Amino acid sequence: MAVLNFTFSCSSKPQHLSKHQLPISPQGPNQLKFKDEHSFSFGESVSKACLTALVSASVFFAVDPALAFKGGGPYGSEVTRGQDLTGKDFSGKTLIKQDFKTSILRQTNFKGAKLLGASFFDADLTGADLSDADLRGADFSLANVTKVNLTNANLEGALVTGNTSFKGSIITGADFTDVPLREDQKEYLCKIADGVNPTTGNNTRETLFCK
């Protein structure tokens, strides 16, 4: 994390300026009042301004906003939000509640990964391998899930609102229990659905309520 350093020079002693040195208008909402005929004190104002500036300067700033999401969830130690992770291997990893929002995950390997509650909001998962993955409660809202391998994946309670598309994906043995699919997506998936999930024992077609 990069830190921005600031240096201020403030004087605690009251300053006095001659009204001849600081011309001001005798009218208006910002009119300054002189202590006497020749001078006014603004030491107190300067001190307050310096204190405010110093407090503000004590704040640390991250140059890359993505660093604020390091770790994503309670598991994992890598920055995964808003990143290009094309082809990266996450197979078998425990990535519960990991944050993959808006990331590029094309051909990324999540085979057998534990991704409960993970967020793939607006992510591009084209061609990714999510076979045997635990995706219960994962968020696929607005995600591109085309040509994804979801063989034997458990998607119970996953979110797929918005323009989420599973076009061209493999869903043999996938469990879609309590997944709120759009009607057009449900019809599409029912055309290719088959198999039974080895973990839950649920028939894929039945979890989709296929006719």
Automatic annotation (TrEMBL):
Pfam families: Pentapeptide (PF00805). Gene3D superfamilies: E3 ubiquitin-protein ligase SopA (2.160.20.80). One of its GO terms (cellular component) is chloroplast thylakoid. This is Thylakoid lumenal 15 kDa protein 1, chloroplastic.
